[in-house]
From TrEMBL, chain A:
Organism: Silvimonas iriomotensis
Subcellular location, principal: membrane
SUPFAM superfamilies per record: MetI-like
ABC transmembrane type-1 domain mapped to chain residues: 87-311
Taxonomic superkingdom: Bacteria
Topology of the protein relative to the lipid bilayer: Multi-pass membrane protein
Classification via PANTHER family: ABC TRANSPORTER PERMEASE PROTEIN (PTHR30193), INNER MEMBRANE ABC TRANSPORTER PERMEASE PROTEIN YCJO (PTHR30193:SF37)
Protein family according to the UniProt entry: Belongs to the binding-protein-dependent transport system permease family.
Protein name: Cytochrome c biogenesis protein
Amino acid sequence: MESVLSPAASVQTRPRKKRIQAWKWAPYLFISPFLIIFCVFGIFPLLFSATLSFAQWDPAAGFGAIKWIHFDNYKFVLTDSWFWKSLGNTVYIAIASGLPQHLVAIPFAAFLSTVIRGRNAVLGAYFVPFITSSVAIALIFSSLFSKDFGAINAILMSLHNLPGIGIIFPDHKIDWLLDTSLVKPTVSFVVFWRYVGWNTVLYLAAMQTIPEDLYEAATLDGAGTFRKFWHITLPMIRPMMFFAVSLTLINNLQLFEEPFILLGDNGGIGQAGMTTAMYMYRTAFYFSDFGTACAISWVMFIVIAVLSYGNHKLFALAGGKEE
Amino acid sequence: MNKVVRLAVMGALLAAAVPALSATPVTLTVASFPDLDRDIKVAIPLYKKVHPEVEIKLVSRERVDHVNAVTTQLASGTGLPDLIGLEIGFVGRFVASGGLEDLSKAPYNVNQYQNQVTGYSWAQAKGPNGDQYAIPVDIGPGTMFYRKDLMDKAGVTEADLNKSWESYLAAGKKVKAATGAYLVASPVDIKDIYIRSNLKNGEGIYFDKSGKVIVAGNPRFENAFKLAKEAQDAGIAGNIKQWTNDWAAGFQHDQIATQPIGAWLNGHLAHWLAPDEGGKWRATNLPQGAYASWGGSFYAIPAKSTHKAEAYEFLKFLTLNREQQLATFKEMDAFPSLKSAQDDPIMSEPLPYLGGQKAREMWREAAKHIPEIPINKNDGVAEDIINDQLDQVVHQNKDIKAALADAQADIERRARR
């Protein structure tokens, strides 16, 4: 506090020709706590990782062991089969969990916007997974999905024994997290389940800003529920769709916790669920190869930047002249 | 307060001050992880008796967090502990980093104690030049745990389990048919123990002494993959990973009939994995007269520690003091690395969890047969790559020779960096 007050006091007691203009630097002083923290925890790691991506470094050997190797890390990453496998997994899970999120959240939000009673309770219930610790979620799901001891298989087995409809359920226990063909859908489902409520909240908020008279005019013109949804609701929530899809894109491409806990640190059998973020973590902290890990993260940054830009163009295109 | 009392108080204060004056108080920081941190907890009161001037502060983090924290401290050279507990899987990495104190040089000359410690384990903490960077505190002789009750039900004898690998798998089929239990939790378990078995002195698991990758065309790996695949195809291997909830549940629900692993699993089984199954388990030697090393822990001093002399004294206490080694053994079943501790009568005590079997004598004998295996800083990478290829062989029918050739190329590619 004192450091803030004393310059101002000196201005009063010692008037000079050139007065210190407190209002010029005071704003910077007031936002400096944020700036300092941002520089230390934001800018510095960013620059450090960019620098390290051109070096070979085993951190246990100390700073002196940094060896500059130009683009070798990038060459290694781009020719690395594990990297491409992890990128494939990431994109698969991003689409398989991301697309349904929006396809479910938009109609669901449209439905909720017509309901008044109990809406907030339903919304709250759907929002809870989003604010729950992802570690807790993954732990619960890993016990639900357990082959021999999980609740999901137990339910499926008892459904299979039902007369008549039992035949549509599998007759054996399903290895959700160990069967390589099921790993990605299973992880995608957990991610979908987690974020669908968040997207519903976003879309509902957007829908509530749509002026009611648009719908009234449409009703007068004889438009049904579906036409109103298609011609009023959807175009009006387009900016929110852009925002929500961008968030999904960025978050899903950095997916880490859910597969990490559901499948273990190497991404499960055949690395079927190893995302790029997990591979980066493993390269750094298990293989002690920080340079390559930094290069992976920067390649990933470029992928995300390009896809985000594409997403932006796509929405601009769909918007026609309005954009 | 009269004069006499005052004098007595003064005397008592002086008496209390004398030991404090004789040596300056030092606080040693030890960084460790569960379960090894219990070793330090056992040691603190014992060490206080001989070195009351030394305070010991234990910083214990989860296994991987511990390694990350120590790595960061070594990288920045700040906040370093005076003593680091290391699991075998991470020793190679830290030894190669150069961040640890070379204990074979003066003033330590630790090689004078080499004969007192289990040889193969001592060799595991040697650097490329034969320098000693860490000292073993416990060892993990490989053994086979099995469920006596399930074997009896299936009409399988102990000899069936360890006569040969073929008879082991044949026994597994009987067990599966009679009880529904898997022979092993995972095909990886068979591979893991097989590739660690019957190594020659100086031959590493994935790398030889000169750092050359020895995976492709190596019968040790080919047979390991073949046996793992056979077990999977016969339906006698589950898909249960170690250290997962399913693993513990498998032990508790009679789903896992045998577990080839380090002898230390006895403590884990009895304490938390399956405490209610006490008396049903037994241990026996590995199939076909194999001896393998599985696990083990070490202590090392960072080169930038500020209390090296005191840390070294404590390190010697932990690793070379018979009383301390035995106290830890009693507490957490960590098999002592110190040879003199291995001759204690406690080794002949019947183990209640194993139905009163005197299994420690067997493990002590096994430890004597384990060869000296050099470790490599890339062992962790190699293990990952091998496991990935094994998955493809077992689950996607990849050809074993092709898988090992791919693994060899992958390991070389990464290890060259």
